[in-house]
Amino acid sequence: MAGLEVMSPLVADRIWALPGGAASVKFFQYLVFRSGSGGVLPSQREMAREYKVAPSTLSTLMEPLFERNLVLRSGGGERGGNRYRLHPLAAKYSSMDEMTAAFTKALADMKEGRLPGLLLPEYQAVPPAEGAQPDLRIA
After folding, report:
1. Cα dist from 3 to 25, 30, 83, 97, 110, whole Å
2. Which residue, of 32, 52, 121, 136, has the fewest CB within 10 Å?
């Protein structure tokens, strides 16, 4: 299975329950697809151009993802703007080993207060059975 990207099971199982309904889910799927391994995202201007929306619309689409800490922003981007990345627990990775290492670091950073936790929607139905293996490959 070399060469296949993997996505966090924490997000893959609950992406459908994002606030904002189908528009938020579709946009988040675009972000995961568009991100580099580990969750690095392009500038807001570039994402707006690619997604074919105005920057203000992009901001509206991103707001619920910021609120849930699925997308993190920090200063220092182009022209002093923000830089964006997916939360390490929501990002895609080039291998299971890379994802495991990133999760280990992210959990330590969360415990130390250096990284916010994910605020994912609660299940409205019974979660998948323990031991069930979801398909984590990015299509």
Report:
1. 25, 20, 27, 13, 29
2. 52
